[in-house]
Amino acid sequence: MKALVFENIHTLPDFKEIVVSPKENEVEVNITAAALNHRDIWITKGLYPGLVPGTIMGADGMGWYGGKRVVINPGIEWGNNERYQSKKFRVLGVPDHGTFAEKICLPESYIFEAPDHLTDEEVAALPVAGVTAYRALFTRACLMPGEHVLVTGLGGGVALIAALMAKAYGAKVFFTTGSNEKLQKGLQLGFDGGVNYKDEKSIEKLAEQCGHIDVIIDSTAGDGLSQLMKLCTFGSRIVLYGGNLGKINGINPQPLFWKQMEIMGSSMGSPTDFKDMLGFVDKHKLRPVVDSVFPMEAYGKAFSRMEEGSQMGKIVLTIQQ
Ligand SMILES: NC(=O)c1ccc[n+]([C@@H]2O[C@H](COP(=O)([O-])OP(=O)(O)OC[C@H]3O[C@@H](n4cnc5c(N)ncnc54)[C@H](OP(=O)(O)O)[C@@H]3O)[C@@H](O)[C@H]2O)c1
């Protein structure tokens, strides 16, 4: 079958023929759509642990199994502890064969029925971003309706679905983003306020819009986060699922302890988080935002779009069966 195979760092994966057969405990899913994550860029740059040349890339995928449309849980071997993953935990697609292929072989326990109201592309957009956002908001931050949530970098796959989930749950949602075009798009999506993080007055503008923040969902960290934390009120929770801008300098400990604030990390999600995320999406008829769709053969364009950071939502590959 045709697949996108990771071979070397500092170059795109190879689009080539590869033979993959199911092991004893595995079944085959015919993949019709897959989605990119920033992780795929880190992998091609050699900035991800456990790289194995010859493996099919891709964590997000939907396809057909047993005559049904299915979605794949990309969190492999989480383990039994809901609080954190086992040492064997890994994300689908390097070092295990992933979803950028005509089919994938994996145990049935990773396969879930796809929500009916979503297109194939929207289903493919859901797994990594959906479970990461769900766990960050609900399992970790224990978001409550009416709270003020700040999602940083709205254009990102995880960020956008986190903002949509928080809004669907009845929170007031504010965001930052790096372009005025994305700022307008975010406001059109119905969020309660937003600023361009490149604007020197962004913190003051955000303060005027939101008054205070109860929950921050962030993947950038860096010095900017300590500035945003000044907007946090008593009992606020700051959840990090990435740290692209590095160390968070300048955190003032005094409000941190006096306001009973919490800073916490969150990664992917347990099988329970995944199942609950699908239930949430179904209940609220939530639709992930698909930025763009490319046939798998045109993967170079898809990778470039993500690397440029021009996307608003998920970049999807369609796969011909
Ligand atoms: N821990 C986990 O389980 C987990 C899961 C998924 C992703 N991640 C990590 O989370 C990060 C985002 O992943 P993704 O797949 O959503 O990526 P993505 O779709 O490529 O999004 C990149 C994100 O970075 C934001 N950004 C770039 N520069 C920024 C800045 N100076 N300040 C604030 N935001 C900035 C972008 O915001 P704008 O486009 O709005 O400017 C956008 O949200 C990556 O580091 C990824 O590795 C972690």
Which features would summarize this protein structure in a list?
single chain, 321 residues, alpha/beta, 7-stranded mixed β-sheet, 6-stranded parallel β-sheet, 18 strands, globular, binds NADP nicotinamide-adenine-dinucleotide phosphate
Describe this structure as you would to a colleague.
Helix 3 crosses helix 9 (271-283). This protein is 29% helix and 27% strand. The protein is globular, with a radius of gyration of 19 Å. The longest helix is centred in the middle third of the chain and has 14 residues, at 127-140. The strands form 4 sheets. Strands 3, 5, 6, 9, 10, 17 and 18 form a 7-stranded mixed beta sheet that branches. Strands 13-12-11-14-15-16 form a 6-stranded parallel beta sheet, sandwiched between helices. With 321 residues, the protein is α/β, with parallel strands linked by helices. The mean pLDDT is 97. The termini are close together. The site of NADP nicotinamide-adenine-dinucleotide phosphate has 29 residues, from helix 1, helix 3, helix 4 and strand 12.
User: What structural category characterises the helix and strand content?
Assistant: alpha/beta
Q: Give the amount of beta strand, in percent.
A: 25-35%
Q: Residue ranges: pLDDT <50 for 5 or more in a row?
A: none
Bound molecules: NADP nicotinamide-adenine-dinucleotide phosphate
Q: If you compute it from the alpha carbons, what radius of gyration comes out, rounded to the nearest whole angstrom?
A: 19 Å
Q: What percentage of residues falls in helices of 4 or more residues?
A: 25-40%
What spatial form do the alpha-carbon principal axes imply?
globular
Distance between the termini: 10 Å
H/E element order: EEEHEEEEEEEHHEHEHEHEHEHEHEHE
Count of helix runs: 10
Task: Give the number of DSSP strands.
Answer: 18
Largest sheet, strands/sense/barrel: 7 strands, mixed
What's the oligomerization state? single chain
The mean pLDDT is: 97
